[in-house]
Amino acid sequence: GIGLLALVSVIGRVQAVTGRTPVGTAITVTAFMFSGYALLLFRGTFVPYNRLWRWSALAICIAVSAFGAYASHGGPLNTLAGGVIVTAWLYCVVEPTIRFWIAARGRAAVQRARLRALSLGYAGIIVILVVAGYGGSRVSSEFWQVATQVVAALSIPLLWAAFSPPRWLRRWWRSREEEAFRAGYEDLVVFAPDHDNMAMRAVEWASRLLGGEGAALADGNEILAVTGLSDTDRSDVLLAMANAGARGEIVRIDDRRSAIVVPVKTKGINAVLGVLSGNYTPVFGTDELERLRAYSASVALGLERTMITERLTSVERAKTDFLNLASHELRGPLTVLRGYLSMVQDGDLGEVPAPMRTVIPALVRQSEQMSLIVDQMIETARLEDGRLELRISRCDLGDLVSACVDEERSLLRETHTIELDGEAGVHLPMDVDAERIRTIVINLLDNAIKYSPNGGAVTCRLSAIGGNAELAVSDSGIGIAETDLERLFTRFGRIVTSENAHIPGTGLGLYLCRELARRHGGDLTVAAAAGEGTTFRLSLPLAADTPARTEPAPAADPTPSEAHVSQR
Questions:
Q1: Contact (Cβ atoms closer than 8 angstroms) between residue 426 and residue 388
Q2: Which residues contact 134 (CB under 8 A, 6 or more apart)?
């Protein structure tokens, strides 16, 4: 169509020099009419005409060309022929011009701009021909000559931008929607909640990015997600995806459509992403393949993230299920064992031989330790499942700690001592779940004893600071290296070194203690250094009707790095 218009212009220039001839005029009229028909066919490659419209347009073009060639010999029909030729040409071109402008609405930025540039370029040609065909003698004035040249000069870059826009122009067109696209990338890669949602968002954005009819994502024979495709289109796209090259390519589906196919690969993903072209995609979008290749890298990362997240979730679920199963299966036999040990220790089953009396305390101690581990597992499982409920009642932290210290003293070896220190007459009433707070205190005391293998004093210091009650449990044991503090309160985050490898534990105790403290509105913190002992501080809010204290109690002597670790 553009080429025939150029031929009309060239013949006109030649005839202006050599003079008009009937043959030249006939060629000019025919080329002009069929340039309009070619532009009509160009529109038909996107939105096909029905057969009647196409054949009627062809018949009109042939008839008008013949009439124009006949009328060019002169006579009264010559003036009429000019108007008929322009009218017939407009019949072929005006509808595509309007159609392209309307079709631009709602499309991707580059497609929208190219369609509108094409529409405006056509409109410029229409204006020129309307002025030339119907302007009469006024067209020869200087004003109309200049105006016509200006419109022609503007139409050329518009058509160039429509057919072959450079990269900088496409980037400029795209700039308005880049922010939305970046947000879509972030949503795709970071926030997609699971594998299926991730795949669906990936194909939706791919289709939107390229202005395609629809898209599909498949891994081998498994379709991960599909959008905007009929059953027939889906089969065509999947076949194109199966036949695509390793780096991706544009695969023809039929005479009018193609599929842009790229691989989506990471270490654990080997998928293919395909986008089916829409009515306007085959011509409008020369950089789709490159953009889709770049986009596929983000899709691969997003899919890998969701896959890893789902695996981690599965592992976490398996851990929780194990805790539930193991703790409940152990609790029954352990209860029986502790019951019989208590009966033996009390002499209810007869006199205990002397050698046995020295063994029973160790057995009782180990059964208590196992019972504590089982309780930790049960509480952790409840916490993970959201089934942990607090039974709030009024109690005094001083009385509770004193009872726990007495319980632990009865099981101590000769190498250890527990010292309870507190302010004179301090009263620390709290509204808490006393059994859960007891769990925390027992855990802290047990850890202080276990991780002081050479013995020594374990100091418990009670104080009231502002509106909080605080319990500090200090030991002079093996301590904790600063680099290990981050893992200390994580689930199963047991820190194993050459000094404590022989000490049993599950890595649940401190995790559970801090979570329980926080459920009560308090916290559990640590100050420690390797080889210099450890101090755990349990802070809990006092009862609402307790007068606040402003003077903190004297603190125990800190370890050399306590201040630094606390700040950290």
A1: no
A2: 83, 86
